[in-house]
Amino acid sequence: MPELPEVETIVRKLRDGQPVERGLPPYPTPVGHVIMSAWTNWPRAAYPSAAAITRDLPGHRIESIGRRGKYIVFTLSTSSLSTLACCLLIHLKMSGRLDVLNAESSRDKHVHFAFALDNGYEIRFNDARKFGREYLVSDSSEITGPLGPEPLDPAFTLKAFRQLIAGKSGALKPLLLDQTFVAGIGNIYADEALWRARLHPLRRAGTLDAGEVAALYRGIRAALNDGVKHEGSAIDWVYPEGNYQDHFRVYGRTDQPCRRCHTAIRRIVVGQRGTHFCPKCQRQEAR
DNA sequence: AGCGTCACCCGGACGC
DNA sequence: TGCGTCCGGGTGACGC
């Protein structure tokens, strides 16, 4: 459920030393600090392996913290202890969160990966459902290479989007969820973008006219920008962060009135995913 | 290429 | 209260 806006919020707060959950104390930014040790008790989440990460992560300095799609990217530089530059990527998947806490404090039972810094703090990957993954690679593109463009990047123009969607023929909802098409959109923001564009989730990409392609482009950008503005969505106990859930137009609003036309929002399943839309203003047929 | 299906997990919701 | 069952989320693998 962390999608682009949630991951972006997490990255910004991590850089600034702000906790992900209200009530937890702030902490010094990890940027500039050297990793002293690494630990995991869930080897299958570690790429290339738990042994490689616990062996090779210590000694690196955290140069910067960024985001690509739904991946959190720690760019690591060399230090006196280590001579190879590399990247640590973390994908939170469903239930992951990152906490920065005093290394002496006891770890929650759902922490499966942690690394300690030279300032007494420890970055902890807390993941109740164990779907998350961490990757230590020399070049982040090894992991993020297949991803499509960043939808909020200035380079992601309407012209670029037209070229991107030109060869596509399948239904819009699965297309938006395809990270190699556009990076960072998940189930919530796909539904929200389609509502804004007035396009049915099962509409075929190849049937859109120029105006509808533009509407979809604007819908994607508006939904994601709005999500970032509200610091993401806190839709259950996993991510007690932003308040975008209070602004959902369709997601999770089954049987509630459409905010445009008051028709009851419908829920269908598309590609195993709950999909919410307004049956009146998101018509399936082409104009 | 695109689509369907399953697997990976487990906390929480729900029904009894 | 306790127990059983189902759900859902992102993604990769696999089969058609």
Task: Please describe what this structure looks like.
The chain is of the alpha+beta class. The chain has two domains: 4-144, N-terminal domain of MutM-like DNA repair proteins, CATH 3.20.190.10; 158-277, Helicase, Ruva Protein, domain 3. The chain is 24% helix and 23% strand. It contains seven helices and eleven strands. The strands form three sheets. The protein has a five-stranded mixed β-sheet. Helix 1 packs parallel to helix 7 (210-229), helix 4 crosses helix 7 (210-229) and helix 6 (187-197) packs across helix 7. The structure holds a DNA duplex (16 and 16 nucleotides).
Element string (H = helix, E = strand): HEEHEEEEEEEHHHHHEE
Number of helices: 7
Our estimate of the beta-strand percent is: 15-25%
Number of strands: 11
| Helical fraction | 10-25%
Parts with pLDDT < 50 across at least 5 consecutive residues: none
Name of the CATH class of the largest domain? Alpha Beta
What's the story with the biggest beta sheet? 5 strands, mixed
Label the structural class. alpha+beta
CATH topology of the largest domain: N-terminal domain of MutM-like DNA repair proteins
On the 0-100 scale, what is the average pLDDT?
90
Corresponding CATH architecture of the largest domain: Alpha-Beta Barrel
CATH superfamily of the largest domain: MutM-like, N-terminal
Radius of gyration, in angstroms, nearest whole number: 20 Å
Euclidean distance between termini CA atoms: 33 Å
Q: Can you tell me the overall shape? A: elongated
Major β-sheet strand ordering: 2-9-5-4-3
